[in-house]
């Protein structure tokens, strides 16, 4: 199967940039409205009018600059903060000393906070601390070094809020990078598990069969079988150590398990009858019990479920002996399909699965449980020594397409 899994990335910053763009426009209108309501009290209203004209043009012309971190350059931030500081320092020139002493707002008013917040979102709390400190210094100069209580409160609010927002942005960025990396690892792990299943179901079992048959035939065939056995061990080690995390490696169908092929339906465009995929497994020593009505599943899910059943039967042939019998039972329930594979073999000795995990065998972990996990289902293995083994495979009918495949391009 070609293609890589697509990892969906999200941006935790984008909502902040959109909010900042709206804040800048609203505060520009607010500052202009404050002046309009008290313009007759200004000592030099033409200074304020000139500044507000510049502020309005700048705010509207730079909306794209605050649409994202890529557009918000250091040069823009420097000019933006300069305009805010200029408005603060021009206030004594435009307004009367009496109004300033009474606590009248500066020309840019709360628009200044937008310039500081742009620093916070772009560069984090250190940039925010730098910008807010310059704003605090400009306010002290504007108040002739004797700020009012309201001025102190406003400066502290901008300083604390901008640093807090800058810190939150840094944490959010780190979390976003961690999440993106985790999604990439998960996607890569799913692809590796799929490759490991394919190798296990095909190459490893063929090599094991060649080794066994070569030993029986002897001569040159024995040498070929020995080489096949060496390659099987090397490939198994590579798969378990390089392709699959060791913690996920578990029981594998042992050497000598026969390879069983399931014919894929010609029409893979819609649901298929699971019974048609499982029927070829029936034989002299494999019973097959099915419902009277079709058991429909999405084609990828049905094929994966049938392959898991095949892997379970391979384990029966490999571990339960040539004389063991097996039964396949299909149950079609309203919300899920249950397939049970039961045998009358000796069962699995206690601790055998843990031992197989250490040996890097993949049958149960990948060929069975891995497939069911990708389908959103489950695989339960119950084995009592002397009483056989039962594998119960459950697949939900809703959204039964394999997760890895659904996310691939």
Automatic annotation (TrEMBL):
Ranges for domain DUF5931 come to 5-180
Where do transmembrane segments lie in this chain?
Answer: 21-39, 45-63, 75-94, 114-140, 152-169
**What keywords tag this UniProt record?**
Kinase, Membrane, Transferase, Transmembrane, Transmembrane helix, Two-component regulatory system
Q: Which domain of life is it from?
A: Bacteria
Show where the Signal transduction histidine kinase subgroup 3 dimerisation and phosphoacceptor domain sits.
191-233
Q: Where is the Histidine kinase/HSP90-like ATPase domain?
A: 304-398
* GO MF term list: phosphorelay sensor kinase activity; protein dimerization activity
Q: Which GO terms describe its cellular component?
A: membrane
**Database matches in Pfam families:** DUF5931, HATPase_c, HisKA_3
Cross-referenced InterPro entries: DUF5931 (IPR045975), HATPase_C_sf (IPR036890), HATPase_dom (IPR003594), Sensor_HK_TwoCompSys (IPR050482), Sig_transdc_His_kin_sub3_dim/P (IPR011712)
Put simply, this protein is called Two-component sensor kinase
Q: Which species does this protein come from?
A: Streptomyces zinciresistens K42
